[in-house]
Amino acid sequence: MTSADLTVRWVGAAVRSLRSARAWRATRNGLAALLVAAVGTALLGGLALIWGAAVFSLVNWPVGSWGHIVLYVAVVIAGPVLALWAVQGLTALQLSRFRAVAGVHIPAGSGAAGRKPWPVGPWLAAGTWRQLAFHVLSIGTGAAGGLAAACWLAPAAAIGYLIAGHPSAAAGGAAGVAAVGLLFAAPWLTSKVTRADETLARALLGPSRNEELANRLESLTRSRAEIVAATDAERRRIERDLHDGAQQRLVSLAMNLGMARARFTDAPAPALRAIADAHEEALLALSEMREFIRGLHPAVLNDRGLDAALSGLAARAPLPVRLRVEVPRPVSPSVEAVAYFIVSEALTNVAKHAQATHAEVTVRRGADKLRVVVTDNGSGGAVPSGSDDARGGSGDAGGSGLKGLAQRAASVDGTLTIDSPPGGPTVISAELPCES
Amino acid sequence: MRIVIAEDSVLLRDGLTRLLTDGGSEVVAAVPDAEQLLRAVAEHEPDLAVIDVRMPPGYTDEGIKAALVIRRQYPEVALLVLSQYVEESYATDLLSGATSSVGYLLKDRVAHVNDFLDAVRRVTAGGTALDPEVVAQLLIRRSDDPISRLTPRELQVLRLMAEGRSNGGIVELLKVSSSAVEKYVTNIFAKLDLPPTGTDHRRVLAVLKYLGS
């Protein structure tokens, strides 16, 4: 590629940029910024002047009638109120300018909304001062926007100068070159100014870092709750599907095998044994399936609630469990499921590792928390991690189960604590938030 | 023995029909929901109704509700309720009507064909057949009181009694002498302050009343 080619290319690009929609939008925005800044300056500047004058007059002990003094006091008092309105109104105006002219949506920061007492509260909020700062700085960005936009007119000005000013050849040439340079700089300048304008607005008019974090936190909390609920719903669906499908078939299969086993007692011994084995196998599969489905999402939890589901758990535990459930008002299905699985896993853990002779489960609903406590009188030493220190020396079975519990609790913003000194007793307690 | 079956799964309905027919009973009706169950019972006045708990339209406790209606209107019909899970309040509801001719088993138990047929016979003969899990749950709820004074062996015997086993059955299951079982039973009754009663069956009822109260 020759340098001539490059030049043609560059000139082509520059000419195209003159006609680009972006350049025109930036220009319009520059002009609009100038306009709004002018309005804002007039408004805020006027208010500041009048207020300052009133304060000055009061401070220098006013001469004149009581009527004047009343007027000054009224202005001093009314000034901040009017200024607040002006700031908020200008902010709204600026944001709609960005939306309508620059085509960018800047979310309004909550600013001072709702700060009490009005109008002192809003003036104590950082948001108001940030907005005011923007309006002051907008004098600069507005002016810059206007100047950048004016660059488009440089050729016209140059022509006017050439015609009306009768300049010398050198001056005329310089003016022509400057005009062309300014013309081609116009797209670049306007978009730079617009970018700066926008950055400033995002920083000062948009949500502050804290507000942004708060918004983000809120949306994350919401989406996580939705995910947890969706997961539970999915588990319930799978449970129903298995129950209606595979489980029924297994029951039927085991039943048929059982019937064959009972009926063909005079069959040859090997055949009889095969049938018996198949029957036992089917029964085993059936009980495994039942356990699996229970682990997925116990139907009783849906139908009869936490109390009933927990009493089933306690009854199936291989050691005596004392169960106390005080949940006068129902909690959300997600929290119920988490509580259920915490008790389930904790009891499994007790049975496997704790060498306990009995356990106690207490579930109590406080004002805004569901408190789940599982205690055993076993050997203690449970560690909530996948490490080899898990009790019973049986690898990480106990620990990883307990770690899963902490994660489950965390999924609904709950906490789980495990107190398990060597020698016991072990106390696993969870606090799960629930709306009151 | 004339039996009505209510079970929404075709597979299990047919299987149960075959199982019970094989076992020497006559299945006079096999229906898929509670409404048809009530009609079939009214029409056939069977000896026994085998009822699934979870049935259309709500798939929750339609079977239990129907069973309670049958108990009220046709007290002579024995009830054997099958459930996907054991729910103590279902059991308490069932037992509150009358503690005879009632059974409550986990659905899976039908696959233990002989045990199931045994339970069917017990219930039809006026006895009870409670799933071990039901008994375990009933016992859990009463762990604060005299039950804690029972020895593990006595507790085991109490469980078996509550399931509906006779002394003879308990002797067979625990492989102990019948005099030993009688001693356990006497101790249990003494510790629970239950009136000593004569027959096996009335003792079982006393235990159930105690547990269900």
Q: What's the tally of helices of chain B?
A: 10
Which pair has the most extensive contact?
A-B, 37 and 32 residues
- What is the number of beta strands of chain A? 5
Outline of chain B, from the CA principal axes?
globular
Indicate how many domains the architecture of chain A comprises: 3
- The structural class of chain A is alpha+beta
Mind describing the biggest β-sheet of chain A?
5 strands, mixed
The SS-based structural class of chain B is alpha/beta
- CATH names the topology of the largest domain in chain B as Rossmann fold
Share in β-strands of chain B: 5-15%
The number of strands of chain B is: 6
Radius of gyration of chain B: 17 Å
Task: Give the CA-CA distance, first to last residue of chain A.
Answer: 74 Å
Query: What is the N-to-C order of secondary-structure elements of chain A (H for helix, E for strand)?
Result: HHHHHHHHHHHEHEEHEE
Q: Outline of chain A, from the CA principal axes?
A: elongated
What would you say this structure looks like, in words?
The complex is a heterodimer of chains A (436) and B (213). Chain A has 13 helices and five strands. Chain A is 70% helix and 8% strand. Chain A has three domains: 12-207, no CATH class; 218-297; 304-436, 2-Layer Sandwich (Heat Shock Protein 90). A five-stranded mixed β-sheet of chain A has the order 1-2-3-5-4. Chain A is an alpha+beta fold and 436 residues long. The radius of gyration of chain A is 39 Å and the shape is elongated. In chain A, β4 and β5 form a beta hairpin. By secondary structure, chain B is of the alpha/beta class. Chain B has two domains: 2-131, 3-Layer(aba) Sandwich (Rossmann fold); 142-212, Orthogonal Bundle (Arc Repressor Mutant, subunit A), CATH 1.10.10. Chain B has a six-stranded parallel β-sheet, with helices on both faces. The longest helix of chain B is centred in the C-terminal third of the chain and has 14 residues, at 178-191. Chain B is globular. In chain B, 49% of the residues are buried. The model of chain B has no long low-confidence stretch (mean pLDDT 85). Chain A binds chain B through residues 243-244, 248-249, 251-252, 254-259, 261-263, 279, 282-283, 286-287, 290, 294, 298-300, 303-304, 308, 311-312, 314-316, 320-323, and chain B through 9, 11-12, 15-16, 18-19, 22, 54, 60-61, 84-89, 107-108, 110-114, 133, 136-137, 139-141, 143-144.
